[in-house]
Amino acid sequence: MSSPMKTLLLSLFTYLLSAPILWASNTDTVQLHKHVLSLTTTNKARNHQNLQELNQAADYIKAEFTKLQGNVTEQVYKVNGTDYRNIILSSGPANAPLLVVGAHYDVCGNQPGADDNASGVAGLLEVARLLQNHTLPFRVDFVAYTLEEPPYFRTANMGSYVHAKSLAEQKAQVLGMVSLEMIGYFKEEKGTQRYPIAPMKLVYGSRGNYIAVVQRFGNGKFGRSFLRGFNQAATLPVKSLKAPAAIPGVDFSDHLNYWYFGFSALMITDTSFYRNTNYHQPGDTIYTLDFARMARVVDGVYQTILSLRI
User: Fold this and answer.
1) Would you say residue 61 lies in a domain?
2) How far does the signal peptide extend, from start to end residue (predicted)?
3) Which positions ≥6 away from 21 have C-beta within 8 Å?
């Protein structure tokens, strides 16, 4: 065999060893990119003060939901005399047990909010699209929340608080809730993953290359079932954290309000500021997101919901 041929074969062999494993994806990365781009390119940041841009984001989400099968509604409520809107797509029998999948569409301050949380909203829209042609034994409400960010975080003005309270008042049979909170930022380098408690690095590692499923203790059957399914379905590393809500970060999203009303809820996240140094900064742009791995997260959520037996 000639030397050039040996070199070519060696190069090919080396590539095959190092190339990423291909997987059959249902998720459309073009759609994910489109959604994030639409949400992050408003004239001003989509925060509680810029009502025109916040409503522009809500209108975009509503238009995307309207393309799908199901009932699209707005949950409008007032804060200091101003109307804010949760956008909801309900799919499945109205009286069936309910699964809630949610993500907030507002941002904190004056920044694009690509990972926080256009990534979660894009994932929400894509999961809704993927599930539209499936008949499930439960109803799914896909909810885009407003006012998750400061100054309304941990108040009754959060969109997720308003939604969770309405379910409690209806005495709805809620199977569980899944919060998609920052799902697009990944890093392979050592030292790119931080933790609220230093020894956690010994368990979870220092590379920010995984997606986390975060729950509190006592989260019930739904949490166990979803985690088991997600571990089987996901095609990227999954790490689970079940801890007291007092651990910083465990309750840092919309799922906390479902806990407040006694519902089982969990968060799927790239771990937010423990990994993404652009958190709540102007640098949180679309160019920092890994859409290939983000698609794997969305695919995992979709496949898990299909497999749920509760």
Assistant:
1) yes
2) 1-24
3) 235
